[in-house]
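seq:
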Amino acid sequence: MAYFGPGNHLLRYDQAGATVDLIPTSGGNVWIDVNCMRKNVNYTVRYPSSAPTGRIVVLDAGPFGKFSDTNTRGLTLKHGQSITFKRTGRETYDVISTGGVSGLQGRSSSFNIAPVRILIVGQSLGQELEHSPAAQSFIDKLDELHALAGTVRPAISFIHKCTGGSAALKEYRPDSTRYWWDYDAHESGPMNSAVCSDLAALSSAEDPTHVFWIQGEQDGGIYDGNTTEEDDEFQARYAQAVTMVLKIIRGTINSADRYSIPAFIQILGTRASGERRGMPIVRLAQYDVINTPDINVNLGAINPMDLPLEDDVHPTDSGYGILGGLWGDAFFSLTL
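struct:
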């Protein structure tokens, strides 16, 4: 039996099948972020009748999530009520059953806005953070590091805006709209425009405080240049794409310090099938962006080139767990 006390928490991806008790105290409420759990798997949470009455216990689907049963982004549990639900889409949640107390109480906004809100953009390696151990490992590492430093970790929530197979540059998705930057037209691609449109609809209290860019497999795997001149041009184009995407995303955020919001780049990992010519060039371009002055772009996790993979590019669950902990190290070193 797992339980969460007062404060802001993340429902663990691996807590499916168990009943998780959300237990407020007479002086504190409980709110739980549910947007990092596996899809089409049942989760059960309960506000036990043995816990104090009159407190607030909320399931928060994130700024773009909706519980389909109430068409609201959150649910408030009633005292003595349990709810079994599952994530049926990227941002859609369906309640399977309620127990103890009937009826659902929707909530148009989440009860608490976590002080740290991390926007994750890029392609499928980042998209899988929605249902992998990485987010929980990230938080566990921060708990460990804050405890060692004698400080308290702030509450953290995640905003997932990655699209699998998306390219940084238009020429590496010429057959689709899944690209972030059009170098020749010097304008955002559909992916970046869509993210910015969503961000513009948020209140300033919901805006991201940090941005993680996790991308490179598409461009690095497709690039087919043969000369050093072509390599240099590809490196420059990729670096510009990432720089502009991160600048435009942060420029859309409704806060006075939006241009100085910290961004992180996860350096491209390896493929099980071996290196493609474009992959080391993508890494060089990523470091070019990180080393650009005055744009506050930072190195993400130390790049482990031996992460266990479940396919050609995506880590296994244990690999994502390792990566999440390394992200925690990078994040803590910047934000302490």
